[in-house]
Specification:
The protein is an all-alpha fold. It is built from 18 helices and no strands. The protein is globular, with a radius of gyration of 21 Å. It starts with a helix and ends in a 21-residue tail after the last helix.
Length: 444
Amino acid sequence: MMTTTATVHADALARAIKKSAVRLLPFLALMYALSFVDRANVGFAKIAYQADTGISNAAYAFGAGIFFIGYAIFEVPSNLILHKIGAKIWMSRIMVTWGMVSASMIFATTETSFYVVRFLLGASEAGFFPGVILFLTYWFPAKQRSRALGLFYFGVPLAMLFGSPLSGYLLDMHGMFGFTNWQWMFIVEGLSASVVGVIAFFYLDSRPKTAKWLAEDERAALISEIEAEEAVKVKNAPNSVFGVLKSGRVLLFIAIYFCIQIGNAPLAFYLPSKLASSMGGQVNFMVGLLLSVPWLCTIFAMRLATKFADRHDNHRVVATCMLAAGILAFASLSVITTPVLTVLAFCIAIPGLVACQPVFWSLPTRYLGGTGAASGIAFIVSIGNLGGFVSPQIKAYADTLSGNTNTGFLVVAILCFVSVLLMCTLPHQPAAKPVAVGSEVETA
């Protein structure tokens, strides 16, 4: 009888997880894709935007990075609000706001206005990424979470796979209705996020208990599984807003993510102009099309890495190896000048630096629970993302000091490599317990 009960529970849980993956993950990936496009499109506009406004390289670097200051300040309170009132309302609010702010970049024609809009964009988007990471802990047990995170992270390569050609195409539009090419890019891509934000309010469910698209036995199985995991995490990990900062493991997660973001930020802010320079021109549709190739590679790398890590329960090793490979390829950009080798380096650097992240996130989400998860994830993201602010400043300074616009890539890569060393010091985490007797559930 006990075996029969366990089998029934496993079957209901499997169906619940599959339905949740199909229902939630594609839409969350779309939301993340739009957020990444609105965060990164300033990299595509860099050459045209600076030519029209006269903003210097130093001012561009500061404005690109100040996004992360606004992001960091409001990250923790935003995630705590989401934990309290639910993702349905709060993620919808975030998307509508950031889309409108992103579109307002059309008015940022001076250094001061550029700084203000980029800061407000970070502040309005704050809480989205850690909110989704937290949201997924409500829906997917630890054993399936890396794959779920990987499918959500598809938003990044999809943003660049389709967003790169779109941004390039919009930058070929000149003077329509009195707007410049870069203004058109910000209008179209910004308002698209606001529209999806409105749809999110009607589409998302904050928790499994309100999901009418789950059968009663599926809902009960999923809730009991998640609650059992949460009880263990709350018992063994810090569970207060600031108590998480007393945990050495959380501080280590923050340091690792900070160093990862040092290497990750230039992928959006500098790679389009790097490829354009190697081709002897400006960012256009062809550059955007070529940039979609490494992001296509990232999709395959992400799917393979997350499935492999979940199946073998070796998330730390997988994340470390991918990160190391990506950093070495990124460092090679300091000496590569031809288009073919540049794209080849991108095809290793981008999958390594991006696809390692959903694997990495399975580590803190396995450790943190309850309010500690809401604040801990937000602290990791907010403080860690300051690496995205520091990175453009470091690159700009290194380039200026050396008189070579490629030197910064090497300096940034060296600093990012610290994340590999720190990852190796992470304490071993016990393997996740099977979700049910004789059953291993596939996410999708």
